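Teaching soon. Got one?

===
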Amino acid sequence: MNLKSTLKWSAYCSAIIMFAVVLMGALVTKTDSGLGCGREWPLCNGKFIPEHAVSALIEYSHRAVSGLITILLLITAILVWLVDKRRDAKWFVGSAIFFTLLQAVLGAMAVIWPQSPVILASHFGLSLLAFACTLLLAMLYTRRAQAADAAANRDEPAVPPPALFRSAVWVITLYSLGVIYLGAFVRHTKSTGGCLGWPLCNGELIPELSGATGIVFTHRIAALVLLVCLIVLFVMARRHFPEGHPVYGAAKASLILVVLQIVSGAFVTWTIGVSGWGLLAALIHTVLVSGLFGILSYLCVTTLRLQPERFYNKQRSTA
């Protein structure tokens, strides 16, 4: 296996394992296993190998996989610098390492010192940013991306998206991160039960906006606004790009994912207090939100890629 092939598989494995880190982080939060190893880091209750308590195993497994992905990303970064001269690959792997280390430090601080829900919710957001960077890196080495690069190197004209569409993609992606943060804040403040029932909240269209009810209802409204934004984005993509275009496909996928995410949010509400199902609902919700943010991040990068005078043209000229 040559270095280029090794780099490709290293990038693929990084994205898969980082996705596992995000999912395991949600499992730690949902099962209240954050202190399964006590207030110690990196040891677990004074031991290198933890005792066979479920909470300790969940927390320690999350730490172990986080350590594994850090090592793999460092190896991937070395391979990128040795094999691939493109600037975007360096940005993606460098950003993935930065966000991974930052979320690890934040996680360690949350174990050693009590942290507010505001800080704890940021931990999930950083993990999601790290996942998006590894996903974007892996996508660089897919056949479709390589075909697009070949077309660009033949100087085939790219159709740049309208400025309004580019701005909408970036604003919606940033807004989605805020919605995701609100969802993590709901979990860390244990406010999930603030709105019983769906789509009504405690039997009311607009409930009293205080305490846990206000937090959950705000998240629901934010998710509804995100749905409207993605409908508008899909209509814009359909107007400017043919069905086979990557931008059209990504806009369509993001709309489907946000609908599924809202449905899964309803599933989370309906399974409150139901043993086993509540955990499954939360993990499904995490899978969908990770996919949604990954697709939106891809859209952001693609809007840059379709501007020949910008980032991607420069990175090709320096290759």
